[in-house]
Specification:
flat; 0% strand; 46 residues; mainly alpha
C-alpha cells in the first residue's frame, strides 16, 4: 500500500508542475490564498 501511495503522490506532484507551467500566475494566486487560509486557521487555534 505504501508503494501505491508513493506513486499517487508523485503523479499528483507532476500534475501540479504541469498546471504551474500552463498557468503560473493562477498557481501563485492559489498558493497565496492557501497561505492566507492557513494563517487564519492558526490564528483561530491560538
Amino acid at each position: 500500500m505504501a508503494i501505491v501511495g508513493l506513486i499517487f503522490a508523485i503523479c499528483l506532484c507532476q500534475i501540479q508542475i504541469l498546471f504551474a507551467i500552463v498557468d503560473d500566475s493562477q498557481m501563485e494566486e492559489e498558493i497565496l490564498e492557501n497561505k492566507a487560509l492557513k494563517s487564519d486557521k492558526e490564528k483561530k487555534e491560538e
